[in-house]
Target: non-specific serine/threonine protein kinase
Amino acid sequence: MGSIPSSFSALKSLHYLDLSRNNFSGQIPKYFQNLTLLQYLNLSFNKFEGEVPNEGVFGNANAVSVVGNQHLCGGIQKLGLSPCKVQGLKKNKRSHNLKIMIPIVSCSILLVMSLFLIIFTWARRSKRKASSMLQTQEPFPKISYAELSQATNDFSSTNLIGEGSFGSVYKGIMGENGMLVAVKVLNLKQKGASKSFVAECEAMRNIRHRNLIKVLTVCSSIDFKGVDFKAIVYEFMQNGNLDEWLHSNEVQVGVQSFSFIERLNIVIEVAHAIEYLHYHCQPAIVHGDLKPSNILLDHEMVAHVGDFGLARFLISSKKTSSLGIIGTIGYVAPEYGMGGEASMAGDVFSFGILLLEMITGKRPIDAIFKDGLNLHHFAKLALPERVMDIVDPSLLQELRSTDENVGDARRTRRERRVSIKEILITFARIGVICSMDSPHDRMEMKDVVAELCIIRDKFLGDHS
Model:
């Protein structure tokens, strides 16, 4: 009851605000249009009256909701409100005052013209720069807690398909067409969960790539108990995550084999996604938590990189938009442990560990890695001659079987075996270089993509 407290004007970092159905009255505070980071404002079903501002968040009809306030007027045209009569009188009064002031200040205009031109030029350049850095995209459509609860059968444990650092993921069915979705519910009691939600929404708002998970909608509301609730809804991936396929013997029995060409295609698709984030987004984005469980596979086994809760915008080649990040043990770059900022090189390190896990079938925290030995050194010590000794046994069996059945009369069996070994050596060497301790010694992702594509072409050429 009453007006919105003026203290809200101090929330400069506010992204989402839902004040619907709170019985607020009076005029809508104009300071909301000065909160530059505010992306969504819900003022619906209150008792506000008077003129609706038309700048800032109010300039986007999809970012603000004022329905259910019968005495509001003005605002941008897309809100569909009637014009304010008082606003018209004020406008006429301002025009009259302006006509009086023009003769008075005409001489001053000549003196400040040069300064005006400088400011105008600077403003245009700044606007172009801002436009190139953050593409203007519509915010995600909103969905209610009740709709998500219904879609997931009240977030039933039978629909639980995954758990992470900041929340749980549920399988859901939405809409009249019964679309399958994955609903990530944030555990807001966990420190950093709210920041993770904002980071993921901000990162995913402006990026589009076939190998990145697609966000369908978001929910920032309260549950039936009046507790804050935040969730992100993604497209559902029928084949689960990469971790389940790499270590199927740990979680399921009888799963179909995971072939070398499938693994190779997946790492290339992941590399393409990270290359896109690093070199084709403005500003560039650092994922920050690349690991098998964050790589989802659709019905055609196409990889989609997900979970951008630790993503950071790269402002320069050395600094990100916020303080450093914490990744997952085994995949996090060593410089992060010493307080280093998130960087492209950190993503490359995580990708290198992922690549070595793909070829060896061993997690970076496997029990064999102790006394200073880790997955990087394990692979490095085997190169080049003993590379076959570290290959995932199920993968090695498939490659040998393929090699023996290749009907290529132009080459001897010995020559084909050498070809397979060379391919595996190159594959493992890329993983080793990408996971070097020093960021300066690692490859760049655009070079990784090129090298992996060469490996695939060579493998398909030798075994087609």
About this structure: The chain has a mean pLDDT of 81. The domain at 6-83 is CATH 3.80.10.10 (Leucine-rich repeat, LRR (right-handed beta-alpha superhelix)).
